[in-house]
Amino acid sequence: MATVKYSGIEALEKLKSTEPPVFLAPSSISEVARAVSQYLFTKLKPHDPKSQLDQLWVDGFDTEQIWQQIDMQSQHLLPSLRQEVNRFVKNPEEIRKLANLALKVSHEDDVDEMDMDGFDSDEDNELEASESEGEEEEDDEEEEEEEDDDGEEEEEEEDGDNEGIEDKFFKIKELEEFLEEGEAQEYGTDYKNKKGVAKRKNQNLSDDEDEEDDEDEDEDDEFDAFAGGDDEEADKLGRARYDDFFGGKKKETNMKLKDLSEDEEAERENQGNEKLSTHERARLKLQSKIEQMEKANLDPKHWTMQGEITAAKRPMNSALEVDLDFEHNARPAPVITEEVTASLEDLIKSRIIEARFDDVQRAPSLPTKGKREAKELDDSKSKKGLAEVYEAEYVQKANPAFAPTTLSDELKKEASMLFKKLCLKLDALSHFHFTPKPVIEEMSIQNVPAIAMEEVAPVAVSDAAMLAPEEIFSGKGDIKDESELTQEERKRRRAKKKRKFKAESANEPAKKARDTSTENP
Amino acid sequence: MAESIQMEIQSVTEPEPLPCKPIFKPLKAHEMSDGKVQFRKVAVPPNRYSPLKKAWLDIYTPVFDQMNIDIRMNLKSRKVELKTRADTPDVSNLQKSADFVHAFMLGFDIPDAISLLRMDELYVESFEIKDVKTLKGKHLSRAIGRLSGKGGKTKFAIENSTKTRIVIADTRIHILGAFSNSKVARASLCGLIMGSPAGKVYSKLRAVSSRLAERC
């Protein structure tokens, strides 16, 4: 990019001559634009009552900063400009005077400025008009700004007949023009043909530029234009339509094509525009709308409109995209912020300092009564008869002293006796000066014989002595020991023995066969 | 009696202060029945015949000596007959003696039955197992076993805790004791018949008997 410094007017001329698409891409045109801005700024500076800047600083400055500078200046200029416009509205003759003046002045200064056509943008023209109003107010009428303005001024001159109805707020001509304009936009007629086309072109261009939110420096001009708006400017913005921003259907086919049929229809419509009447056109539009709506009704509804839907019937994760609203019955969890934790900690600390812990107090137990004597169930047959039982009960109730001791009493007595014995023994062990208990002689009746007689029988006798000799031994004849026997006597004994044995064996021959082992040879 | 009435009539005619109210002694049994003798006859079941023979003297002595009631055994009709005497102090003696003998016939021991003679408020209550629950065969036998317990300990436990005497004669149950006590004993026995275990009955008995004892 060659950084060629243009002078003010030349820069402006170059800017005007560039094709609109060049503004879209970052290019050397930005330098030109900056130069233009600077030039315009310096031109307007004398008119600024509270000017603080000598010139527009663009070198090394951001878009935003440059814009701020311009804005600052334009803010100061706005009130005076408004006043001037109001004055012109009241007194149209003055415009002519000014026009002559302006012509002269312009011829002196710059030739080109006069021929500025509003082909860049309406807003741009407006701005230039407003900016140079102080000196060159013929821009208002010569340049092609709003047809309204021209129309206004022209028509103001023409008919002063309707002065009665009209006042500064209401002008019939203005009303008519407004209505016609509305119709034109609605039905696509060429309202003031050439001007309309040109206007559309202008609008489209401006729209293009408006659409692209680049860092392009051209934005400055646009914003300038907006900033320097008048009442007329405001009017125009008030009447802004979708088409102004996003273009007519025949121009913006590339950008937003959703329905091909729509487009076709639009094209068809646009093509047959001149042949059909207004009514027919209206009817066509209505028909197309009806078809659209019928088609929408026939199609299956969106899942959000279908009533009860399960997860299977709607596309995956579609519930995430829809903003669902349902009641939460549970209280939302408390958001733990630093303040919350800080407050809690403070509470804890204070409690610790006070030593006021909410400890659970053990409930005081009731004073225990003495456990009643648990009557044990006696499994055995009662020794007393029923009469005795009742008798004992009655006696206990009537005369507690005479009552016979119950089992528990006896047990108690036994226990106390045992304990006394134990204590006695312990005292014997432990006391230094132990005195044994005096013996109480018990008088008891015993069956003891009065006399103890001496017995005749010997006191101690052994068993052996008690037996008589005959009882000990019963035998006959002369008894000799084996060592005392003579030979003959031994033979005799042996023979006797053999005889005896033979006699026995003759008596029991059968036994012999059975057990041979028992025989002694 | 006639003299006293005469005296009264005389006193009415004369204007004198009214005499003191006459005090009549209670009527003797003899006089109440206008000199007639009252009888009671108690049948002897065959199973109680020999025990009666063994314990005859124990029955005879208190009835004859203390109650002043004539008592004899009619062997032909197998009944014990009781008769008032002239010197029977109270009419109720006959009834008490009859009850006493009847209790013996049901199966109660002499010392237990004697309490009927000595105390007024004792009653004998009888019921059958089938009144409580219809049981047949083995179930019935088991129920009877449950009632007595091992070696009779359940029965004794109930007797001791409620101050009653119980006789279990096959399917009949007799309870001798005061009204409230016999009610408790009956409740325990019914529980046992219905099938609750002995331990449960014991625990209930403990609770109730302590309350009974406290009350008295």
Automatic annotation (TrEMBL), chain A:
Coiled coil: none annotated. Residues 165-176, 235-260, 268-281, 477-490, 502-521 have a biased composition (Basic and acidic residues). GO terms for biological process: rRNA processing. Residues 491-501 have a biased composition (Basic residues). Residues 109-281, 476-521 are annotated as: Disordered. The keyword Plastid does not apply. Its main location: nucleus. It is found in: Nucleus, Nucleolus. InterPro entries: Mpp10. One of its GO terms (cellular component) is small-subunit processome. Residues 109-164, 206-234 have a biased composition (Acidic residues). This is U3 small nucleolar ribonucleoprotein complex subunit Mpp10. It comes from Arabidopsis suecica (Swedish thale-cress).
From TrEMBL, chain B:
Its main location: nucleus. It is found in: Nucleus, Nucleolus. Residues 126-209 form the PNO1 second type I KH domain. Keywords: Nucleus, RNA-binding. Pfam families: KH_PNO1_2nd. One of its GO terms (cellular component) is nucleolus. InterPro entries: KH-I_PNO1_first, KH_PNO1_2nd. GO terms for molecular function: RNA binding. PANTHER family: RIBONUCLEASE Y, RNA-BINDING PROTEIN PNO1. Belongs to the PNO1 family. This is K Homology domain type 1 superfamily. It comes from Arabidopsis suecica.
